[in-house]
Amino acid sequence: xxxxxxxxxxxxxxxxxxxxxxxxxxxxxxxxxxxxxxxxxxxxxxxxxxxxxxxxxxxxxxxxxxxxxxxxxxxxxxxxxxxxxxxxxxxxxxxxxxxxxxxxxxxxxxxxxxxxxxxxxxxxxxxxxxxxxxxxxxxxxxxxxxxxxxxxxxxxxxxxxxxxxxxxxxxxxxxxxxxxxxxxxxxxxxxxxxxx
Length: 196
Known about the structure:
Number of helices: 8
Order of helices and strands: HHHEHEHEEEHEHEH
Strand order of the largest sheet: 3-4-5-2-1-6-7
CATH superfamily: Vaccinia Virus protein VP39
CATH architecture: 3-Layer(aba) Sandwich
């Protein structure tokens, strides 16, 4: 069966929201991700004051680390609960505002202004709304989008990247016949063809 066993699997937005409601968030790393620490200099490449994008950010603690280093962080996540937990767990004051271009979306922004988290579908974003980024930390995003949406996801990410931007991607490797995902298995060959 190979990769075919996953290609039609679809996880709805409701299912993701339910995972957050039930606390079924084994994918969240309290201590942050060791690979970001390891490859941080690849992402930053000696540059400071970058704009860094966290697709499907959940309540990733790395958003706070990078903001504390002086970078400006933008995330997107369908679960408002996840975003509110992020601000609460770091005791960060924030304000909430609508996003005029996206019906029903909200932007939660730290009062300090360096963390802006959009509560909406990632596919509603565009560079005209969020601008472009110098770096992307994709940990658990490409592997979480439905396999049928990968091309759409990657095409969007490419439009959000500045010319010399770095894209750090964490994928997972396992036998797709034994696990239905998410996270989904994205073989290296597919990553190369998606990102060209």
